Amino acid sequence: MPIAVTLDLDADAASRIEPLWDALERDATLPTTRRLGVRPHLSLAVYDSLDPAALLARLDFLGPVADRVLLDLHGAFHHEFADCVDRCIAHYRPLHWVPHLTLAQDVAAAALPQAVGRLADPMTPFAGTLDVLSVVRYLPVEPLARYVLGPSREGDRR
Description:
Number of helices: 5
Mean pLDDT: 83
Structural class: alpha+beta
Strand content: 15-25%
Strand order of the largest sheet: 2-1-3-4
Largest sheet: 4 strands, antiparallel
Low-confidence stretches: 60-67
Order of helices and strands: EHHEHHHEE
Number of domains: 1
Distance between the termini: 22 Å
CATH class: Alpha Beta
């Protein structure tokens, strides 16, 4: 199963995604990420096959700085994990990655125009903080590790 390394949105920013999911979920069959059990996030990397043990052991040493530009953070992550790049899905690699929030997955082509149309009203730009780095296996979604970002505090790794 694939392994994803994600940066979760803070609670306030994540709440801004709820109306988007509500709009999409008017179609009872649409596989939204909320229905899949996924928190709002940005994916730093998705690996089609990778032993999570080696990844998790090395994540303790990553220290994202809050004021770094997102693309620099993405580049630094992939520099640290350069030995895994051959297993990273191509559009998550440096120079190909486009930061995005996935709201639904595997939407049928016929359902796409209606799904996009439902997002027109509830979509407004917002700012947020990426406050947690998570590693998950999917599908089904299985959390493997969670790292609270920001100033170090006792018990942050969950």
